Amino acid sequence: MTFIEFITLLGGVGLFLFGMTMMSSGLQNAAGDKLRGLLEKVTSNKIVAVLLGVSVTVLIQSSSATDMMVIGFVNSGLMELTEAILVIMGANIGTTVTAQITAFNLTAYAPLLVFVGVVLYLFVKKPVVKHVGSIIMGFGMLFVGIGLVKETIAPLAESATFVAFLEQLSNPVLAVLFGVAFTAVLQSSSSSTVIFQAFAVQGILDYQTAVYLVIGAAIGSVTPNILASLTTNRNGKRTALLNLIFNIFRAVILMILITVFPQILDFIQALSPDNVGRQIANTHTIFAIFAVLVMLPFSGKIVALTEKLLPVLPEEKRSKEEMQLLYMVDAKNTVPSVVIAQANKEVHRMGVMARNNLSDAMDCFFAKEDDLVEKVETTEGIVDYLTHEITTRLIQLQSTEISEADAYRATKLALIVSNFERISDHAQNIIEYRQQIGRAKDNMSKPARKEIKLLTEETLKTIDMAIDIFYNEDFSRIPEAEKQEEGVDMIHAEMMDEHVKRLMKGKCDPAAGIVFNDISTDLERCSDHAINIATALIPVNDAKLGKYRYM
């Protein structure tokens, strides 16, 4: 192969990969949030969940994209691992459609597809048409790229070095490992399978070797998910791990099967004689379907193994137990006034969580160990979940026939929920400051540390007072709470003055000084949120209602 041919080969592969990406991106953009909506509705019905995974992956032509969405849902608590494994199984089937499409020889029509796609993409302003244009353009580029690859790899059949390399791949284990590595680099099993098809069509790669390469490609396809899971919580990491476990088991089962029953490959070849590209595509699809059928009954076991390899921590158990509504469990079939009472309990429970989260965050900031970091982050996730669920039910309640007083109270409860959620957000901010500056907090002067601890104590007192006033509706304590909040403001103002003096005298580490300012501001704002909570339900005499209403 000459240097020019080598460059052409790289260009063909690049064009093919770019076409795949553009087509997948266009499909996702055209579908919008509907695909996410579909996945959010996944059920525990195994067959339905698998078919959903197949459908979504066929629509977007990317199992990695489907898996990424699943990881995101599991990471946010919207999907269980037992549901995730089913969608991932379906995605493994859906991704084989790409190889089935490319098995058709459409290279001659590819330039026309690119032209049509470019015209739609560049000259039509309507977003939906532009997305369709990018799909067609990507589809055309994909086949142009395949055509270039096929043309340039033909001389490789005469290369002694390359032939010797392919002979090494006649060893099934080496072929599988190469398939894993090659796909890990491309980060797409569809792409690597299509390239293996191109080599087989040109007679450079035999069918038997291609089969093992395809088996390895399924394992290598998990690479993007593993990389993406590095920034997720442990459940997100488990999702990537169970995908890896599923594909490793799949590879082992298939290798044993075709070793013991080699006639299986003869049967698949007989389905499309004299068309090795189609044979590889059929193998890819049949193996994927077979693996899912065999392993579907054991999906729970795969999840259990994953949780054994990456054990569930106490904080995760707590999250699972607390990330649910305890009182507003059947708002649709409950009398509105009762739902309001239930909401009170639910909001109070959430408020205590937010308050404790702020306290834990401050303890964590000054602690030498990171033990509390995950606890704060877990609680923040629970508070976010409760905020969404409580607010949603309160909004739904207002769309029913309820009294004006109940409707107004529901509005104010939603406002209180929002303020509690902001307090927990400030706790998360404080954790992030700790992670950003590391040990810089130790460079704070003793007076600065003492001032922050005092401000923390007074802020927590304000929040405790606000929670008590809200839950017991003891509005006689509001003047006391307002005085407490004014005290926090005064402490904050004095802290800022002292901080400026330390800066002027060079007694303040710059990095620690910035964090000092940010934390004190977060604490002062938490005190403001507390007063909003305390005063939200103050009763006001309303002549129209002839009784107290809530403002």
What would your notes on this structure say?
With 551 residues, the chain is mostly helical. It has two domains: 3-309, no CATH class; 315-550, Phosphate transport system protein phou homolog 2, domain 2 (Methane Monooxygenase Hydroxylase, Chain G, domain 1, Up-down Bundle). It contains 24 helices and two strands. Strands 1-2 form a two-stranded antiparallel sheet. A hairpin with a 4-residue loop joins strand 1 (539-542) and strand 2. The radius of gyration is 30 Å and the shape is elongated. The N and C termini lie far apart (80 Å). The relative contact order is 0.07.
User: Overall 3D geometry?
Assistant: elongated
User: What order do the helices and strands follow?
Assistant: HHHHHHHHHHHHHHHHHHHHHHHHEE
Number of domains in the coordinates?
2
Give, in spatial order, the strands making up the sheet with the most strands.
1-2
Ranges where pLDDT stays below 50 over 5 or more residues in a row are: 542-551
The biggest beta sheet is recorded as: 2 strands, antiparallel
- Helix content range of the residues, please? over 70%
Overall pLDDT, averaged? 83
| Quaternary organization | single chain
Structural class estimated from helices and strands: mainly alpha
Tell how many strands the DSSP assignment holds.
Answer: 2
Cα-to-Cα separation, first versus last residue: 80 Å
